[in-house]
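Notes to self, Peptidase:
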Amino acid sequence: MTVLAALLGLAAALLVPVHASAAATPARPADGQGNIGIQLLEAPVNRRDDPRAHLYIVDHVKPGTTIERRVKVSNDTGERRQFELYPASAEIKNGAFTFAPGRTANELAEWTSVAPEKPVLDPHESIEATVTIAVPEDAAEGERYAVVWAQSSVPPDEKHNVGHTHRVGVRIYLSVGPGGEPPSDFEITDLTAQRDDEGRPSIIAQVRNTGGRALDLRGELRLTEGPGGLSAGPYPTGTAVTLQPGETGKVAVPLTEELPDGPWRAELLLRSGKVERTAAAEVVFPEPGSVVSLTLLRAWSDLTWYVVAAALMFAVFTVALALVVRRKRLSAPARD
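result:
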């Protein structure tokens, strides 16, 4: 029975999926006089396990809904600063979340307000501000994008011969619709390996957004089973790629120049929020200035694991039933 119990435990374990998540820290660009910053302070209860919701305002609401989010605005310079807090337009274009110049408005920006609007912060002081998004009753279904900016300007004076303006922002991804939130999903459709003219290798993944929400794709690549049993990595992806629903884009993973050509087993993990996808391929890096397409290795999907686990459970219970029946027959008294 000890062996039987072990088999049952193994089968049950196979039915429990493993999930992973990762978080990132928002950048705070520096100017010549120090840093100014803005940071989202809260995420909706139903998104506490979504790393993107701790960086950006990400939500799905019905028409007529009003939501609020708190942000922290900080002045880490050595000077007293006047700030302007305001929303402005953004769009997703060519695989990037693109900011509009100045106070350019779009529909989402017009729904958004920030209070206070013009705080004055002493050196190394920070305040909390409230971002309010009021979606009208007649808002059309779809996802919209904007940015909440914290801007500070320094005019020319005795200390600064030239005035300058700096701003930092928090992105807004707002989906509007009558029902539940559209699902987020993507697939890695192709991998290529290349070396540039200087011989630097990289892996390029082609990714398609198959869901109903925008994605911010980041991840890492590992190389294993290399020449002489070598392993390398993980190598982080380059600049995050942002894709609209239905859009296809490319995610690049730059590698170190001294890597041998191979063969290697390349394993790529990409994620956006809570959604993760993987792809693997055998790779031999080409000559400098060349690109080669890789054949994806078939990976077992979650559904495949569940089917295999269910089959194993069925087999285990069949064996268990057979053992019980056999024992009963052996223990039954013989009849004359």
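- The chain has three domains: 1-27+301-336, 32-176, 186-297.
- The longest strand covers residues 81-93.
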